[in-house]
Design brief:
By secondary structure, the chain is α+β, with helices and mostly antiparallel strands. About 40% of the residues lie in helices and about 15% in strands. The protein contains six helices and four strands. Strands 2-1-3-4 form a four-stranded mixed sheet, sandwiched between helices. Strand 3 and strand 4 form a beta hairpin. The two termini are about 20 Å apart.
């Protein structure tokens, strides 16, 4: 049963959060959805990488630049700060090295969000307008 005042889109909605348990942004996403009494499943990408098809879904819908984290240490360690890449090349890099992802990646039904983005999470919870 959906509590009063909660959008009907939340009924039966399950949230998948792809992230790292030691990441502040991932913990913020988990807390955000749990506070709204949604069923949350954490997929720890440090233990089990995302399936290529799942990652491709995020890249196709949000764009490779939205899913990449150029401020991360992994980005600097690999030396990508000085490379110019088109979206296809960046997508291939993300598929090959998931440490370059902007975490958390959140999926609610067909809705997707990347990074710590509470307005996007609220839109996911609200459902289609």
């Amino acid at each position: 049963m959906v509590p009063p005042g909660y959008p009907p889109a939340m009924a039966g909605a399950s949230v998948q959060v792809f992230g790292a348990p030691d990441s502040q942004a991932t913990r913020a996403a988990l807390r955000f959805f749990k506070e709204r009494r949604m069923e949350v499943h954490l997929v720890d990408v440090t233990r089990k990488p995302m399936a290529p098809a799942e990652l491709r879904r995020f890249v196709d819908r949000l764009g490779a630049r939205a899913v990449a984290d150029p401020a991360s240490r992994a980005w600097r360690d690999v030396g990508l700060g000085y490379l110019r890449m088109d979206d296809a090349e960046l997508a291939e890099r993300l598929l090959a090295d998931q440490r370059l992802l902007r975490l958390p990646l959140v999926r609610v039904g067909n809705g997707l969000a990347a990074g710590r983005d509470e307005p996007a999470w609220k839109a996911l919870v609200a459902g289609p307008s």
